[in-house]
Design goal:
CATH superfamily of the largest domain: Zn peptidases
Oligomer: single chain
Order of helices and strands: HEEEEEEEEEEEEHEEEHHEHHEEHE
Shape: elongated
Number of helices: 7
Strand order of the largest sheet: 1-4-5-7-11-10
Number of domains: 2
């Protein structure tokens, strides 16, 4: 399912130029390690936490490392090159880390968290985008393509929404690794209209997860002010549908090497099957009227139904979004009809 260690070793050797003269005094310069860490007497980097990328690393100097950012399976794969790792070092001298990409190019501005929250780092990006070099302050910290938001964070959101509404958190099913796919239902179970909210099909799309969190926060507040809404409409909220891919630092797929956003219909994966089973068990009078699936891309947009949209769907779209593309300062968006799942 994942790429073989041998493939990673060959790729790392090619991309790092193993055997070239290295910087003294590190005794193990250019040692390729497809494991959880690379370590020198004064510094180390490690990939040993939920959300860390499954990367190989190399020691280039006493306080200098390279990280091979590679996908969970061989191409073709969407170029969402996720990386996340932590580092420790003695003293105040900076640590230099070079990101080298296999199967993609530099896309995400590095984020650094030294314990006081996330901030962006400046990176020196190669002209062809295949590498990026950054320096981080001595001490400890986490470096990632985006903020690291994993299952514990999503579970905390679910508990918070549950506490605010009294709606219980429940488990739809389990992933390949046995992680729960958790959900919350707002509104009455016999409400005739159903809105489905899905998140985190693609692990690196963290800004989509943040948008979903804000959306559900507002939804919880609205249903608190208007209890009648829950009598007419119920909401299925699934903030993390790909827990394995998120925990393993995947670019796109679940543990079954499948893009879950392409599995609606085949239902070959346990995560999509879990959602389908819940929907299939609904009473006959309960019908889905809307599904919102939170993703991220390089711009702000809404993918909406294309030519197959009904008159009712077109009226809903016009009421909800049309003419509001520039309403939110700093966040203009476009509306892009699609006939196929994007």
């Amino acid at each position: 399912m994942g790429m073989s260690v041998r493939y990673l070793l060959v790729a790392m050797a090619v991309m790092l130029g193993v055997g070239a003269q290295a910087q003294p005094p590190a005794p193990s310069v250019d040692t390729i390690v497809p494991a959880n860490e690379c370590r020198t007497p004064s510094a180390m980097i490690a990939f040993d936490f939920d959300g860390a990328s499954a990367s190989a690393c190399a020691i280039l100097g006493e306080r200098e490392f390279a990280v091979l950012v590679s996908p969970e399976h061989a191409p073709p794969i969407n170029p969402s090159p996720w990386y996340a790792f932590r580092y420790e070092s003695t003293g105040d001298a900076p640590v230099t880390i070079t990101l080298r990409y296999l199967g993609g190019k530099h896309r995400y501005t590095p984020k650094w968290n030294g314990g006081g929250g996330w901030r962006e780092l400046v990176a020196d990006v190669a002209d062809d985008g295949t590498a990026a070099r950054l320096r981080v302050p001595g001490g400890t910290g986490v470096i990632a393509a985006q903020e690291v938001i994993v299952q514990d964070n999503h579970a905390a959101d679910l508990r918070r929404w549950s506490a605010a509404t009294g709606a219980p958190v429940f488990t739809l099913g389990q992933s390949h690794d046995g992680r729960p796919v958790e959900a919350l239902r707002l509104g009455r179970a016999d409400a005739a209209k159903l809105v489905v909210l899905l998140g985190r099909q693609h692990p690196p799309e963290v800004t989509g997860a943040i948008a979903m969190q804000a959306f559900v926060d507002e939804l919880v507040a609205i249903t608190g002010r208007d209890p009648g809404l829950g009598a007419d409409t119920q909401f299925l909220i699934v903030p993390l549908i790909n827990p394995d891919g998120t925990a393993r630092g995947h670019w796109r797929a679940n543990r079954g090497a499948t893009d879950l956003n392409r599995d609606w219909g085949a239902f070959a994966q346990p995560e999509t099957r879990a959602v389908k089973a819940w929907l299939d068990a609904l009473p006959p009078h309960v019908r889905p009227v809307l599904m919102i699936d939170f993703h991220s891309t390089t711009r702000n947009l809404f993918y909406v139904q294309g030519d197959e949209a009904s008159a009712v769907q077109q009226r809903f779209l016009a009421t909800w979004l049309a003419g509001r593309e520039d309403e939110f300062a700093g966040y203009p968006f476009t509306i892009e009809p699609r006939n196929a799942n994007p």
